Amino acid sequence: MIRIDAVWLAVAPLDMRAGTESALARVVNVFGAARPHHAYLFANRRANRLKVLVHDGIGVWLAARRLNQGKFVWPREGASTLTLTRAQLDALVLGLPWARIGEAGVITVL
Question: Which of 5, 2, 14, 24 is nearest to 74 (CA)?
């Protein structure tokens, strides 16, 4: 429905009370700009809630997801932002271990 060319994940938690304007300001502060057809993901401190801000080229969309059990697999250390593939995004929103999908999941030594 909405074209997404790139997916960006912010490691630092976001207050889930943040609305569209606050989330957009956070995107600009963390990523430098909100680019058209890019999705920006944030989680709360417990990583059981997720917000996604998508710039569709005309305006912005803000979606939220909450897990009733468990939590999203969310990085806690390292870089402040990460780039995800579409397959990793699909796994992440389902609560699956997205970091093992794609090149990160390749087995090279037995």
Answer: 14
Strands 60-66 and 81-84: unpaired
Residue 42 CA to its chain's centroid (Å): 5
Backbone angles phi, psi at 27, to 5 degrees: -60, -45
| Contact (CB, 8 A) for 37 and 3 | yes
The Cα 76–Cα 54 span in angstroms is 23
pLDDT, tens only, 31-89: 999 999 999 999 999 999 999 999 998 999 999 999 889 888 888 777 788 889 888 88
Rounded to an integer, what distance in angstroms lies between the CA atom of residue 110 and that of residue 7? 32
The whole-angstrom separation of Cα 101 and Cα 26 is: 27
pTM of the model: 0.85
